[in-house]
Write a structure and sequence with these properties.
The chain is of the alpha+beta class. The protein has a domain at 51-178: FAS1 domain, CATH 2.30.180. Helices cover 32% and strands 19% of the residues. The longest helix is centred in the N-terminal third of the chain and has 12 residues, at 8-19. 27% of the residues are buried.
Length: 187
């Protein structure tokens, strides 16, 4: 009897596992492979809430190059998280204006870190609405660098020379559509 009492905690755990249908081994079924627990935040399906920054970009025909770059840099999950973020989202035309071969080179697996650095240069932590931009203001980016704001006489807002041509709210921040890819000086 003392032996049974001594091993009771182990027996209780074994009985619990057996009762729950587990044997300590985990078998994969189609349900466990595709469950939200097996993918990042971007894999969570939610058709009810307001779209997040990545979902807004995916829904924009003018940002397919940006979405492809986010995927190549494995930066999708980061921008689907709660945030809040401010993202300067270059248009497809802005990416097309890069020197020939630049995007193809950056999206190669061996250049993933460089591409991610460039994408993080387009992200601010916090929400910066157009009215919060002041001429000469420096903005700290997610990669630790800074961007410079210029407000022109006609009220246009430029971020490192890229003009904000539209603004869209998202559930986890705000997107400012810009007409230029922002490339850090040392990249």
């Amino acid at each position: 009897m003392k032996s049974l009492v001594k091993h009771f905690p182990i027996l209780a755990i074994m009985l619990f596992l057996i009762g729950c249908g587990g044997s300590g081994e985990q078998t994969q079924t189609a349900e466990t492979v595709s469950s939200p627990a097996s993918v990042g935040q971007s894999g969570v399906q939610d058709d009810v809430s307001n779209p997040n920054i990545v979902q807004v970009a995916v829904g924009s025909a003018d940002h397919s190059t940006l979405v492809a770059a986010l995927k190549a840099a494995q930066y999708v999950d980061a921008l689907t998280n709660v945030g809040p973020f401010t993202v300067f989202a270059p248009t497809n035309a802005a990416f097309d204006a890069l020197p020939a071969g630049t995007l193809e080179t950056l999206t190669k697996p061996e250049n993933q870190r460089t591409l991610r650095d460039i994408l993080e240069y387009h992200v601010l932590l916090g929400v910066y609405k157009p009215e919060s931009f002041a001429n000469g203001k420096k903005l700290g980016t997610a990669d630790g660098r800074s961007l410079m704001v210029e407000v022109t006489a006609d009220g246009s807002i430029l971020i490192n020379g890229g003009k904000i041509i539209g603004t869209v709210s998202a559930s986890n921040g705000i997107i400012h559509v810009i007409d230029k890819v922002l490339v850090p000086e040392d990249k």
